[in-house]
Write a structure and sequence with these properties.
The protein has 172 residues and is mostly beta strands. The protein is built from no helices and 14 strands. Strands 1, 2, 3, 4, 5, 6, 7, 8, 9, 10, 11, 12, 13 and 14 form a 14-stranded mixed β-sheet that branches. It is globular. It starts with 20 loop residues before the first strand and ends in a 14-residue tail after the last strand.
Length: 172
């Protein structure tokens, strides 16, 4: 996994890429992607261009590093899957959002100076909003989310779910 850090970072100016585009920069082992307009999973390769609502998943020996238009990055561990929910940039704001469906994603976010700039990692139970830091988010088979922060600021909030609860006990 440490091999994914060094050479994986490709620095691109936001002007180099159209809005809503990210670049899949580094692949290790088995990794696949699914374009937003299809249900077919295809083997991923270095330099693959990804867009909003595309998904990436890794196998048991896989890893993938995704570089966003602001040079922030997310690295997927083995047996992980994410959906790129938002990757937009315009004159007034920049928004990056990924949904971690399973596994683990480590994200390196550049210092976000503009208050209209956000980087979010969502799971089924939490949303972590980042303001320039290194962040590790994992979700296990029971859909329990874990968030770890190297330094900087991350706001973590529970996601409201529509699970039925027992009226007497208040438990699901």
């Amino acid at each position: 996994p440490a091999a994914l850090l060094g050479a994986a970072f490709v620095f691109l100016s936001p002007k180099d890429l159209p809005a809503q585009t990210v670049t899949h920069a580094e692949i290790q082992g088995q990794a696949q992607y699914q374009a937003a307009d299809t249900e077919v999973w295809t083997d991923a390769s270095a330099g693959l261009e990804l867009h909003e609502n595309d998904s990436v998943k890794t196998g048991s020996d896989g890893g993938a590093t995704i570089i966003f238009h602001d040079s922030s990055s997310s690295r997927l561990g083995p047996n992980s899957e994410i959906l790129i929910e938002n990757a937009s940039i315009d004159d007034k704001n920049q928004t990056i959002g990924v949904r971690l469906t399973s596994g683990r994603v480590w994200s390196r976010i550049l210092k976000l100076l503009d208050k209209d700039t956000t980087f979010e990692v969502r799971t089924s139970s939490t949303v972590a909003t980042v303001r320039g830091t290194t962040l590790d988010v994992a979700v296990d088979a029971e859909e329990t989310s874990t968030v770890a922060v190297a330094d900087g600021t991350v706001n973590v909030a529970a996601v409201e779910t529509e699970r039925a609860t027992d009226e007497k006990t208040g438990k699901p």
